[in-house]
Specification:
Blueprint lengths: L1 H12 L1 H16 L1 H10 L6 H10 L3 H12 L4 H23 L5 H21 L1 H17 L3 H7 L2 H6 L4 H10 L3 H4 L19 H13 L3 H12 L8 H14 L2 H11 L37 H9 L6 H13 L3 H11 L9 H12 L13 H11 L12 H8 L3
Helix pairs in contact: 2-6, 2-7, 3-6, 3-8, 4-5, 6-7, 8-9, 9-11, 13-14, 14-15, 15-16, 17-18, 18-19
Amino acid sequence: MPMKKKTVRRGLLHFPLLAFMLLLLLFRWGIPYILLAVEADSLYLDTSDYWHQMEQEHAWPICAVVKEYVCQLFVNPWIGASLLAFCLSAPLYAVNVVCRRYRGALYWSMVIQICVVCVATVYVLLPSTRTRENWCRLEHSAICHDWEDVLRVATPEAVKTDHDQLPYALLALAVRGELPDHMLDYPLESSRDFDMGKPFDRRFYTFRMVLYDCLGCPNEALHNAFQLASFMRCGMSLGVLRQMVRYSREMGDNALSAKYGRVLSSSTFHFSRNSSFIVLSPPTDTLASRWNAFQPLLTERLGYNVGELLDTESPSPSMYHYFLCMLLADCQLSSFVTVLQRVRPSLPTSLPRLYQEALLVSADRGLLPPDVSGTVEEQVVSDYEAWKAGRATSALLTGHYWQYLSRSSFR
């Protein structure tokens, strides 16, 4: 019997190790993108200017510097999860070591450890935490141009709950060349849904930074990165600095890129043997080439800016689709017909069904000649006639442009 009690006490003594493993797995698989966002928002630089700034802005500069140093370690979710799990379980292990001499104290210590694991689990499962995790995942995937993951997060069902995810979904569809085919799958109301509806906040500038990067405007993306930095704790962050290095490189300004690279190389993980930050090649899945790298856009109206970009040089067909779908979202059929006729040689031979439906409605309203048989498929004409005659099936009542027009007329 004494041997059994000794075994139980030894098991209780090492229970914090089990708690550490549970917390590690919980944080790693429960909030990985929050951990990545914490690293992207942090700023630790081994420079005298950085230390002087921390001394001026914080009453306890050492604590602030240690916090920023630890946060930058979250660049790997496993490291971040390990640090969080260690901070929670290490004190419990120390308490166990102290309490091993007192009868019954180890059992109370185990109860406290179980409560800590339960509280951490509740935090990870809180709706607010899940919402933050989804947003961190959405922004991280968009910045990395992982458009497939963006669409996995910003589904039509998720957009109904959080409408601010819709601009990311539309941009991802545009870059993948699928915007005309799936635009009406989402709860779209107007072209305002292609942009963030709340200007001058962090989400707004993050999306604008990604958007103009995809539009082939690294100069404007860099401008929005500066605006985004103003929302960070230190007025700058490692995540913003990484983007500024890349945008400067894409603009062809190697001197500016090297300047930001030297700043970034003062951190712990962004360095090389020659103390210059190594930048990956720019992504190729964009809506346009870098032909307007230095062109400033002096308006906050996204539709106007995209239209101006179309007049500079020939962008990709995906960018034409982006602008044409914005016109259709605003029910501007006359402008849609004009632009489509102009860019028709740059588009595939077979038009998307959305465009065919819009052309059919335009012809019905006198914006085009009545005969559109050479452009619109017979099945589309048949479906439109059935809808007008009131013989439409349930499949023709949703996801079609004529239904979108009729719904928009009642707003």
